[in-house]
Amino acid sequence: METSVAIILKRCESIPTAENYIGVDKGALTLARNGKRMLLAIGDFDSVEESDLAYIKEYSDTLLQLNPIKDDTDSEAAVMYAIEKGYQKIHLYGGLGGRLDHAMINLRLVSRFPETVYLHDQNNFIYSLAEGVHSIDKHEYTYISFFTEDEAIISLEGLKYPLDKQQLTNKDTYTTSNEILEDRGIVTVHAGKVTVIQSKDA
Fold first, then answer.
1. pTM of the model
2. Is the pLDDT of residue 202 over 80?
3. What whole-number distance in Å separates Cα of residue 72 and Cα of residue 133?
């Protein structure tokens, strides 16, 4: 089966091209209105009209209606479903720009599942890297920044500001607004884990 899936959240402004979709709450309605078939529609759907919910059902293989009183967010439930189904690359769209608490949860999902959960919006591509050597494509992004929730040791090659086994802590900010010089750069995480933000100006 395909190993990647696009999870569409309610703030998604445009539907990306993907082989597999999961719709979360009003994101499921966005997919249905655009004629996109979903593996799963998930959420409490407390802000969705009954007529729209019936429409969502028509376009989803499975509909999972969650209790509004729950410990996990809808986006976390969708990510966990995708992981349980064996998807190795999980792309979240529409998870930034709204409520900051929801955005923080989505960023934590990125950090929790390195090289698995990816967060997209119009100007940013966010993911995390575990220990190892990683080739990073520049794509259309101008800048690349690195953060850690704890401590990490990283090296950067092919970037405007290279590093050699540099310790990074959660207090450091000097690893923002770097630039990949050519088509790709090399990031080596010697210890720990880093969150990467590739970005461009609006």
1. 0.92
2. no
3. 33
